[in-house]
Structures are given as C-alpha cells and as structure tokens.
Amino acid sequence: MTTWTLKKFDELTPHELYSILQLRSEVFVVEQNCVYQDMDNKDLYAWHLMGWDSDTPDRKLLAHTRLLPPGISYPEASIGRVVSSPSVRAKGIGRELMQKSIEYIYTLYGNGPIRIGAQLYLKTFYSSLGFQPEGDVYLEDNIQHIIMYLP
Predict the structure, then answer these.
(1) Is residue 51 a contact partner of residue 64, using CB atoms and an 8 Å limit?
(2) pLDDT truncated to tens, each residue of the chain (151 aa)?
(3) pTM for the full model?
C-alpha cells in the first residue's frame, strides 16, 4: 500500500529530504551510472510528491516527483525528477506517480499545459499518459532525452 504526501520544500522534514535525495542518488547516479549535479536549486521552488510504503514501519520512500511552477524549467508547469524505487518497478507505481503528479499540477497551477524533459527510453510510457514528443532528441548528462508536452 502506498501513502501519498505532497509538500513544499520548506515543509519537508529532514527524514523526507534525506529519503528523496537517497532515492534519486540510488537511481540516477548509481543505477544509471550518471554523475551529475542533482541539487540544482529547483527543489526550493517545487512541491514534492512522495509515495511511501505504508506497510513497513520505517516508511520507505517508493516514488517521488517534483512539481514546478511555470517559469522555473519551462514557460509551462513541469514535472521533474520522476523516480521510483527499483524494488517496486513494473507494479504500476510509475503510472500512479505520474497520474497523481498531473492531477496535483492542475490543482496547484491550473489546467494549463505541462512540459517535461523525458529520458528517451520512457517516451512510450509518457505518450500513454497523453504527452506528445516535441523537438529533437538531446543529450543531458550523457543520457538521451526528449521534450514532451501535455496540452
């Protein structure tokens, strides 16, 4: 069972922030073998959506996104740092995470368009949620990405 929490950066507890950074490091740095600057100051302006394993006493973080207002990453609102724990992949948590992220973006910033920078290998996944590719493939931290847009 997953318990979802949405908080502004200033509301995060030290445990929550540590868990977010730990999960992002586990996936983006270690699993994807990518050395990059994760702390880019955008977290400070974001709402953080966290999915916690409510079946364990230590409340393990299973999934996270940061929801950014228009004007931070793109002119539109955006969803970034989409990450799920390897321990729960292929169980639907990524889809649930994105569906909840889209709902919260609309609640926070209105029903405008959403733009994301997606890793190319996830293009089909994001397309299944209604996102459309836009522009050329580009390299970010040596990983192929594509801009995707949800009208």
Answers:
(1) yes
(2) 899 999 999 999 999 999 999 999 998 878 777 777 778 999 999 999 999 998 776 789 999 999 999 999 999 999 999 999 998 888 889 999 999 999 999 999 999 999 999 999 999 999 999 999 999 999 988 889 999 999 9
(3) 0.93
Return all residues near 138 (Cβ < 8 A) that are at least 6 apart.
144, 145, 146
In this structure, whether the domain defined by 2-113 belongs to CATH 3.40.50.1010 is answered with: no
Q: State how far the Cα of 106 lies from the Cα of 127, in Å rounded to an integer.
A: 18
Hey, what are 74's tokens? 């793109």
Rounded Cα gap, residues 101 and 45, in angstroms: 16
Please name the helix (run of DSSP H) or strand (run of DSSP E) that holds residue 118, with its range, or none.
Answer: strand 114-119
